[in-house]
Amino acid sequence: MASIRDVARLAQVSTATVVRVLNGGATVSPARTERVMKAVAELDYVTNGVAASLSRGSTRLLGLLVSDIANPFTAQVARGLEDEAVRHGYQVLIASSDFDREREAAMLASFARRTVDAVALLSADGATESVSRLVRSGMPTVFVDRRPRTRRPSRSCARTPSRPPARPSAT
Question: What pTM value is reported for the model?
Answer without folding.
Answer: 0.67
